[in-house]
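Please complete every field before forwarding. Incomplete forms are returned to the sender.

SECTION A: IDENTIFIERS
Entry label: holo-149
Bound molecule: zinc ion
Molecule representation: SMILES string

SECTION B: INPUTS
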Amino acid sequence: MLIGTHIIVGSVAGLALDNPLGALFLGLISHLLLDTIPHFDTVDDNIFTKRQITIVAAELIVAILLIYSLVWRHTGLTAPIILGSIGGFLPDCLDNVPVLKDYFRRTKFGALFHYWHERWHRKQKVISIAILTQSFIAALFLYLGYLVK
Ligand SMILES: [Zn+2]
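SECTION C: PREDICTED COMPLEX
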């Protein structure tokens, strides 16, 4: 999944749980579960091209603006919300971001995590379906977050 979807779901999980460590754990679990849904998260075969960085940055900005206006603005950034969000994006941050991923994957835990992270991933080759799937999930969790706030 794209990073914005992971942050939205992790944030709402943290809001619902209202327990900082539980929220971090739930954010991590939500990341892995979301990755099993056929999706799209790169346009250039995991190479950080300018186009890829632009898409990720734009998607992240839109996601943060949406979750801020629908949820965070009302709840504030509580510890469970922040840690749920961190749990949501941390796996991709450690395992996919250039330079950081090189250090992470050299550790025993990082190598093992990368192996399983890749195995959990399901790609959707039809980009329009992939975008619709992610948009639906993001909208559903934004709605849930809006209801819970
Ligand atoms: Zn991932």
